[in-house]
Amino acid sequence: MISVGLMQTLISTARGTLHNSTIDRDDLKNASISIKAGTSFIADQRLKTLLDPPKVACAYNAGSLFENKNSNNRWRMRQFPIGTSAHCDRFIKFFNDAVFVLKGTTTPVSVGYQQFYLA
User: Fold this and answer.
1) Phi/psi of residue 9, each to 5°?
2) pLDDT above 80 (res 114)
3) Boundaries of each Transglycosylase SLT domain copy (predicted)?
4) What does the chain look like in DSSP terms, one character per residue?
């Protein structure tokens, strides 16, 4: 299994979330398609994650939200490498930096996730 494109989405995930069995590696190299696939997956998972950032990160990384009780995993959610909290720890650092930068701007967000969600 190989993740492709800007959003690093698996081809099988992109096909499922975009309801298009013809999506291939080259399609996911197109930034627009990659973003649609990634954000559609996040939207599909919203009832499980409630769009809570650590849950979204782990669900995106592991394919859905799964419990992992390993004592080395502070988040107790499956992520790769299995049994660690490495992915979510790294994500949270970047997320917190982004929030800090956005806090300093008065420009409102212009695009909601609904634009990318394909039912």
Assistant:
1) -100, 140
2) no
3) 4-73
4) --EETTTTEEHHHHHHHHT-TT--HHHHTSHHHHHHHHHHHHHHTHHHHTT-HHHHHHHHHHSS--B---TT-TT-B--SSTT--HHHHHHHHHHHHHHHHHHT--PPP---GGGT---
Return all residues near 116 (Cβ < 8 A) that are at least 6 apart: 35, 36, 39, 40, 43
Question: Angle at the Cα of 73 (from 71 to 75), degrees rounded to 5?
Answer: 125
Task: Determine the pLDDT at residue 79.
Answer: 98
More confident residue, 99 or 118: 99
Residue 40 vs residues 78, 82, 86, 112, 115: alpha-carbon distances, Å: 21, 25, 24, 12, 9
Q: Taking 60 as the threshold, does the pLDDT of residue 118 lie above it?
A: no
pTM of this prediction?
Answer: 0.84
